[in-house]
What does this fold into?
Amino acid sequence: MPSSAAPERTRLRELAWLFGKLGFTAFGGPAAHIAMMEDEVVRRRGWMSRERFLDLLGATNLIPGPNSTEMAIHIGHDRRRWAGLVVAGVCFILPAVLIVTAIAWAYVRFGTLPELAGVLYGVKPVIIAVVVQALYGLGITALRTWFLGALAVAALAASLAGVNELIVLVAAGLVVVMVRVGRDRRARAASWLPLPLLGATSTATATAFGLWPLFLFFLKVGSVLFGSGYVLLAFLRGDLVERLHWLTESQLLDAIAVGQVTPGPVFTTATFVGYVLGGPSAAALATLGIFLPAFVFVAISGPLVPRIRASKTASAVLDGVNVASLALMAAVTIQLGRAAVVDVPTAILAVAGAAILIKWKPNSAWLVLGGAVVGVVLAYVQ
It folds into this structure.
């Protein structure tokens, strides 16, 4: 299998095509996006090993920002360094931005969201099969010992119990360090705690809307926010609704809904918010603000991943974080499964999707598009 040691082998147009396609077809949130990336870059194209993919995933979980976008940026950097970093990230983000902007235009003009229920009805159960397949392949690589398997179960249980995902990641890393190198090195492991989280409390006060304050607000969000789109909802509500009074509760919920139901990064919620508040220019600035930190964090942390793996202590942390990352993906999949498989047709879609993946191993993007078509047809018939 080709290694990541020869990034020049991947052309920029290949990166642009792959991540542009994923930007149009990657429904289901970060766990599903990452599963589709694993399918493309590990299994289908052989651009990197599963071990390398897991290391990048672990590094992604330790920095703030949108996980799946940062994973795309990491892969681009791994294949073509700085040019690849920009191309992969932009091409993954841009399709979602264009789709969300179109929806925002319709929302501002007509006052309602376009009907997307049929698409989601068919896509969600198919996404379950895609993520489970990725978890299986990555799990074989990550869970090399009974100890790591037990740690994964514990991390899964903690996540399902509502423990903050950053705490789960850091705790798993520290446990592996303590087991491998002893209690005398715990202080070194603790230095890996992602301190930006400490700055996540908001100090915003009510102020008049402006393009510059909007950009700075979303720049702050992208710089300090860990977690899913639901964490983003809580963060935006506290500032945009309660403190700044720029949005109503209804507008914010509509913005989050659009980010959740469209393909690509959930953080394109910022695009919708910007358009509602100030039109295309505000949408562009909000999008730039929330995604710019991801490029910076990956540019800083990406070159450090090989050094982390070379260090005995840091490698132990990364092993624990990798295991916990898979547990978090599994927890999200369980929660999504409860919402996705709601009746006999969706159960059939989920089982059929899994069977097709196992037997024929098609490109997961085609499977997702097929689910969307079936969902729209079933919604129309019903």
About this structure: Confidence is low (pLDDT under 50) at residues 1-8, 183-204. The two ends are 47 Å apart (CA to CA).
